[in-house]
Amino acid sequence: MEYRKNDIVTLKIEDCGIDGEGIGKADGFTVFVKDAVIGDTVRAKIMKAKKNYGYGRLEEILTPSPNRVEPECAFARQCGGCQLQALSYEKQLEFKAGKVKGHLERIGGFTDIPMEEILGMEQPFHYRNKAQFPVGKSKDGRIITGFYAGRTHSIIENRDCALGVSQNKEVLDRVISHMEKYHIQPYDENTGKGLVRHVLIRYGFFTDEMMVCLIINGEELPGEDALVKSLREIPETVSVMVNVNKKRNNVILGETVRLLWGKPYITDKIGEISYQISPLSFFQVNPYQTGRLYGKALEYADLTSNETVWDLYCGIGTISLFLAQKAKMVRGVEIIPAAIENAKENAKLNGFTNTEFFVGKAEEVLPEQYARTGERADVIVVDPPRKGCDETLLATIIEMQPDRVVYVSCDSATLARDLKYLCAHGYQLKKVCPVDMFPNTVSVETVVLLSKGKVDSKKIRVEFSLEDMDMSEFQDGATYPQIKEYVLEHTGLKVSNLYISQIKRKCGIGVGKNYNLPKSEDSRQPQCPPEKEKAIREAFKYFGMI
Ligand SMILES: C[S@@+](CC[C@H](N)C(=O)[O-])C[C@H]1O[C@@H](n2cnc3c(N)ncnc32)[C@H](O)[C@@H]1O
Per UniProt, which keywords does this protein have (predicted)? Predict the structure, then answer.
């Protein structure tokens, strides 16, 4: 059945979408309902309707889910950070394990998935060692800080996030009163004026060292010494820095950092290994679960001190050093030069002599090194960003034929795509373990073990090429239907998948290499007209894709 705007539907919520919205069906018509949780029976008003699906506003919870809980944070509904706080933690874990399994089945084409039990937390709050608070103004002109409401840039005022450390509030109180005293204006995204954009706080859970870094739209901050004096009164402060970002974009951190006081980094430990972490370094945000995640990767790598291992996308060498405890040699590759500097320092700090690090793209460094040395690897570990591995890299792994591949992933959709490729080229899926690194949010991390085996055609249902798929929907940003809907609503124009993919390419957003390209050189494709291009670009901006 088809529903239209303003229709009222009754439905049972059975799933959860990427923004944590409840998903249910009314007579085969799928409805996304914000603030409804799995297991609720709700009455919803259709606010937007498409052919087979629509977006509903929660009117009434007719029967609350037995898994509904009172959120710990008073702002959980408005804030975009925690999408699942109203769902019991047990059910959250079930949902996440199901999400990984579902992606492996639907995208990867796998059956009989060797899933291990998801590794959850005992206390799923106050686990984040890093927080980035935007600074802005309230309607009545006060300086405020907090978090962005879901998919917007309006700040929900909150200095005491339930996922962060208790020191966050004290830091923010001091920064805001400093701004008030010195008449420092927060940055305004619309005008590009104002000074303070964000406050970044990093905390070492096992060392109790804290770094405060103000991201500013300028070179200097009025009263820098007074701010340092105030922040030093918090006993855990070991580092106060500014980061300069004068660009008018959505990227939080700029490239330049300046030390105001203390050390340019904090130190923290995972297991037996110490790491130095600077403002720009990638470091897993949940230190408790990171030890378990890396422990699982190490278990799957099954090292006996004789192996040569590559750790691709190695960041500051976190997994590399974990592996180096039990390997003959570990080689790490990372695109950010500063992270590789950190990785080398971290190796030295911990006394490792069996590591080597390379700056560059994994998909370039690995084939180059393999061509140069011809040395095979016993184990290859990959931990790519959400977009997953480049196909050139996967092809090189296949060529190198390591005994085991350990894949650590923060996006199970691109993970499933890459596993499908590796298994279609001779690897076997041996173990899958989801790890809950981000309780109360929809994200889930996964560790996978693949080992060399024969091609098993029964396990793979469809032939495919990465180039023919557009996986960018699974990354940050919006889906094709969401973009179409935004464009229609704001301009009245209808745009096709073809036009969206053309503009994605122009903007440098990853689209499968052949996705929506003409099948032969002579075939003609319509080109996106300028007014539609403008509208699509606006939608990309709205969804934070450019
Ligand atoms: C999910 S993080 C993993 C970092 C590290 N393994 C850890 O656990 O801390 C992904 C890393 O890949 C890096 N990266 C992104 N694209 C890359 C590429 N093409 N080649 C190498 N590194 C890349 C990012 O800078 C980031 O440090």
Answer: Methyltransferase, S-adenosyl-L-methionine, Transferase
